[in-house]
Amino acid sequence: QVQLVESGGGSVQAGGSLRLSCVASGNTHNSNYMGWFRQSPGKEMEWVCSVYSDGETTFYADSVKGRFTVSRDSAANTVNLQMNNLESEDTALYYCATRDGAAYNYWGQGTQVTVS
Q1: In this predicted model, what pLDDT tens digit does every residue of 15-32 receive, in sequence order?
Q2: CA torsion 110→81→21→109, rounded to 10°?
């Protein structure tokens, strides 16, 4: 089992920045990808970005490319999401997730990001 705890959410004006963090604990040695997802009220869960265990291989949704940066410290079991130039459309509950196989099977409780 893997436990994930997110932090860093909050309220910010459009154009501002926030940094989310996620700390993993438990049986993390098989974790390959860590990712961020988000869900807005009335909308489906949306994948935001992923980072491989090497900390260098990253992928981003087109909607956040160029504005968000994901980083990973595998030794500290931490993944961060730097979000710049935030837009109202970025308002959502953000979840950290990880996987030890083909699908994300461990999820955090989420942290709220509100952009006004």
Answers
A1: 999 999 999 998 888 888
A2: 10
